[in-house]
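Q: My labmate handed me this sequence with no annotations at all. I'd like to see what the chain might look like in three dimensions before we decide whether it's worth expressing. Could you predict it?
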Amino acid sequence: MDWTVAPEPFDSPVAVALWRAYYTEVSDRWYLLHEGHRTEPAELEREIAAHTGADLVPPGGQLLVGWYGDEAAGSAGVRLSGSTTAELTRVFVYEEMRGKGGAALLVRAAEEAARALGAEELILDTRGDLVEARALYARLGYAETGPHNDDRYAEHWFRKKLAG
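A: Here is what I predict for the chain of 164 residues:
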């Protein structure tokens, strides 16, 4: 089966389901590691609703969905964060679809989308416990840098110059 990647409206049912799965996973991982329990349902709903992805629309952003055959399997988003810098966000692949090349394909498609938005470099942040993400970014040529934001949960920051 082959992967394809296509732009998707941030508020489509597919995009909303992917966002919910992504946020639930990363939030639960943090709470389980630091506090020994999953995310409280009310907090989960509040945070999912507060971060809709409305900034992932042209001309300043783009949300992409990875399809494995005819099944939505993952996402990646980019948003301009400066005149020549874009931020990579919402990189996620459903657990049952991992290990099939989708994450790297989504990141490369996001790099293309960032270039199309006028970006010359891509930045991102992640956490220490998201070791799979950190390994992916390093494998794809992202260099770990100092902080570029003060996000409470960010522990690692990466940057990559985008080739012309």
